[in-house]
Amino acid sequence: MKALIVDDESNIRKVLSLILSEFNFTIKEASSINEATQQLNKISFDLALIDLRLTDGSGLELLKILKSKTPETFVIIITAFASTENAVEAMKSGAYDYFIKPFNIDELRIKIKNIVNTIVLQKQARNFDLIADTFEGMIGVSDTMKNIFNMIIKIAPFDTSVLITGESGTGKELVAKAIHRRSPRSDAPFLTINCASLPAELLESELFGYTKGSFTGAYTSKSGLIEQANKGTLFLDEIGEMPLSLQAKLLRFLEDKKIRPIGGSAEIDVDVRIIAASNKDLKDEAIFRKDLFFRISTFQIYIPPLRERREDIPKLVEFFVKTFSLKYGKKIEKIDETFMNDLLSKEYLGNIRELRNIIERAMILVEDDVLKDTTHLVETCKPSPSFTKGFNLNNYLHEIEKDLLYKALQESANVKTKAAELLGISFREFRYRLSKFEKAERSVDT
To answer: Which of 57, 51, 45 is nearest to 13 (CA)?
Structure first.
């Protein structure tokens, strides 16, 4: 993915560049409309962050130039000179959002993460045209997946609540996206948030918004995702991780369709469809409200793990091979029979995400036109313990856990939410486990 930063302040460009690098963007910078236009003539960008006041004109002028060249580019306007007129004009001209300096870095990260998720889904949807047996960006020839597709078709036109369940990596967000696209709300926003990725206070402000001065750092009022998704759909991923206090506030919204931003006195009417997802059985969760469970689960869609629908594996492999052939410029004529048999027999605790990683790894390392298993080239194993005097099982398991946590951090470029996903645990659990080792290391240093 490629991003363009346009700001005449080098310090701002540096900060924005650091944030974007967390999401693996290839970044170009410009300090003026002229420099930015030169970049736009050479490169198509997925995302652009543009200052409103530039040395040679208005960022709105550049926004219009950019949108005329690549309408699909997401644009965030950033300015120290806020006005309602500028904000309205920016949104009418195609801006995705509008941030006021000094901006909240965590909020900007969340917004960029939503954009990245959308970009990935859009690119996947385009690539899915490469093969048959797809439905709204999902691949499935098994009876189970066909039943899910039929359920989506039946419930999409109605505003009824939907709870999507299944293990991590099964494609719950794709199902939610398909319901939205087939609904009367398809022309309105589809926004998503992972309830496990944020602390309670930030999650509440992100969902419900806040008014100026309601807490330290609230330099201006900010609408929440529920309000931003008005007339559209809001996807609450991992809703089982939502704190009980916030569950009560969400339940009230679902019942009366009104929200009150943090620090606000007036209620706002909002028309939004809520689709929720969880990798847990919420009706058996002691810390999830039963009344909220019944409110969000008029319809439940369960996505089975990949090991229970192995007939879908060959089509998924075909799709991933074609996707990574385009990405890495490789030409694959066939897949080694032994490799395919192995792919068909795996347990896939990481589900489709795990299969995707296996194929991507093989595509990167392949040296000819036959795709083979490359596991032996990259996997390393911790040596079996030696049961000598002084062996301690707890210490041994402690070291394994520590190695896995830090390896996940390394592979996710130090983004903790991604590291938690790799390990199949919630963000909160990951943060708790990691804190134990960090505290131990600090105590040793002192």
So the answer is: 51
